[in-house]
Amino acid sequence: MLTTRRVYGACLLACVSLMVFALYLQHAEGLEPCPLCIFQRIVFVALAVVCLIALAHNPHAWGRRVYGVAALVLSVIGAALAARHVWIQMYPEVAECGPGLGYMLDSFPLTEVFSKVLKGTGDCADVLWTFLGLSIPAWTLVVFVVYLLVALVFVLRPPRAV
Fold first, then answer.
1. Which of 112, 127, 135, 151 is most exposed, with minimal Cβ within 10 Å?
2. With bands split at pLDDT 50, 70 and 90, how would you rate the model's confidence at 123?
3. How far apart are the C-alpha atoms of 44 and 132, rounded to whole Å?
C-alpha cells in the first residue's frame, strides 16, 4: 500500500541518491558543476529537507497538502532551472564566458548573481556526460517533473487518498 510516509521516504532516498551521484561525478570523474548545476543541487537539497521533515512528521490531510505545496514550489523552481540549462545546451551560442559562482557571490549583489547565472556561462553549455542520449540537466529536468507530479497528487487528492 502506498502511504504518505513511504512516498516521502522514496522521494528523500531519490534526492540523497542524486546528490551522491552528483558528488561522485564531481570528485571521482572530475566533472566540475557549472553555476546552474549548483543551483539545481541546492533545490534538490531543499527538496530532501522537505521530504525528511514530512517523513518525520507523517502528515495527514492539510499537513500533507502543506508539504505538497512546498515540494511543488521547489519542483517548479528546479524544473525551470533545469529547462533553462537544457535550452542553453541546445543553443550554446547564447552562453557567455564568465566568472565562477564563488567570484560572482563575492563581487556582485545577489540579484545580479541570479541574473548572470540564468543567462548561462560557457560552462553551462558544455555537455560532458550523457546517459541514454540525455545530458545531466535533461535527466535533472525529468526528475523535477516527476517530483512535480508527485507533489500535485499530494496537493490535489482528497485527504483520505494516498
1. 112
2. low
3. 22
